[in-house]
Amino acid sequence: MSDTAEQTDPAEERRRLRLRRVAAHREARRVLARPGFITTLRERMALLDDAAELYDLDEPSDMYGNGIVAALEERTAALLGTEAAAFFPTGTMAQQVALRCWAGRTGNPAVALHGLGHPEVHERDAFSRVGGLRPVRLTDEPRQPTADEVRGFEEPFGALMLELPLRDAGFLLPTWDELTEVVEAARERDAVVHFDGARLWECTVHFGRPLTEIAGLADSVYVSFYKSLKGYGGAALAGPRTLVEEAKAWRHRYGGLLFQQFPTALSALAGLERELPRLPEYVAHARVVAAALREGFAAAGLPWARVHPEVPHTHEFQVWLPCDADDAGEAALRQGEETGTMLFSRPWDSRGPGIAFTEVGVESAGLEWTAADVKAAVADFAARLKA
């Protein structure tokens, strides 16, 4: 057999690992979070059990954005304290539409954002290739942009886009004072401010402010219904009524005005009713878990291990280890498969020679874990890692 034939196809290997990881997660008795996307169709459909408590099921079904979809839009606008909101099938579409609407109003298609922002990293250059926008990077550093960077940027921009929290930097948030200063700096430049708030729902603990006050800093806000709220999908763009009405026209042009969306809308209402009130509890317990992870790694002889940020800003954070990413991933999988306890359920990636990192989220399943439980799981994981 040739050397070429013996080589493993990287794509096939990633697929195999993902299937193995999902299977281990499904079978595990103890996990820190159970994301909806890894469950079965039957389990996902169970999300709509007792749906009559969420919406009058004897009302006519929605057609092209009326009925339950309009009710969800009104509920979202009320929660965020905005004049109106528009439901979109994806956040990618919602934000492209919002920012092209703002570009038309400001006359400037340049959007200032972070180099680690979702549109720059995960959307295949959609802003420029589809939306006619021109993203310009304020910084690529793994932190939030500063007011000085906004004030001192060398060229004009029509909109400032802030991802709250900044997922790829560790779900990082600025302080409240830093956020208000950055917004003020953009206003000084006559730029509008748009919040990429896919995970804005869980920011209230860190800021110590209600959602209405946080969203009120921006000219427009995008929120997701599936990331933290566990819905089937969907997003909303919230802001001034005139902007939202224009965005709805562009939503139609983009193909986002779907014939019926009641399952997704119902699941979003379920998330707003059931998950949103629990997010502060998840954030608080994530801080307990993070502290226990740090102590557990130190006790296991891995003092270089890092939890980032040390005190999580939301219910999600990063873990960094001085090891090969494949080794960390294999140790995590074997722990889940062999013990029924899965401490790290997300993929491990490499960020340099001998440096691996993963993301950790704490949801309802994680509330059962005590600090002692976390430390015991760390000890078992570390033993497998060293084996």
| Helical run tally | 16
Number of strands: 13
Average pLDDT reading: 95
The helical percent reads 40-55%
Main sheet properties: 7 strands, mixed
Helix/strand order? HHEHHEHEHHEHEHEHHEEHHHEEHEEEH
Strand order of the largest sheet: 2-8-7-6-5-3-4
- Rounded radius of gyration (Å): 22 Å
Query: Segments where pLDDT lies below 50 for 5+ residues?
Result: 1-5
The structural class is alpha/beta
Cα(first) to Cα(last) distance is 32 Å
Q: What is the approximate shape?
A: globular
Q: Which percent band covers the strand fraction?
A: 5-15%
In words, what does this structure look like?
The protein has 387 residues and is an alpha/beta fold. The chain is 44% helix and 15% strand. The chain contains 16 helices and 13 strands. Helix 5 (91-106) packs across helix 12, helix 14 packs across helix 16 and helix 15 packs across helix 16 (371-386). Residues 1-5 have low confidence and may be disordered.
Blueprint of the fold:
Blueprint: H1 3-6, H2 10-27, E1 30-31, H3 41-45, H4 68-80, E2 84-88, H5 91-106, E3 110-114, H6 118-122, H7 126-129, E4 134-139, H8 147-152, E5 159-163, H9 176-188, E6 192-197, H10 204-207, H11 211-215, E7 220-224, E8 235-239, H12 241-253, H13 262-275, H14 279-299, E9 306-308, E10 316-321, H15 325-339, E11 341-342, E12 349-350, E13 356-361, H16 371-386
Parallel strand pairs: 1-11, 3-4, 3-5, 5-6, 6-7
Antiparallel strand pairs: 2-8, 7-8, 9-10, 10-13, 12-13
Helix pairs in contact: 5-12, 14-16, 15-16
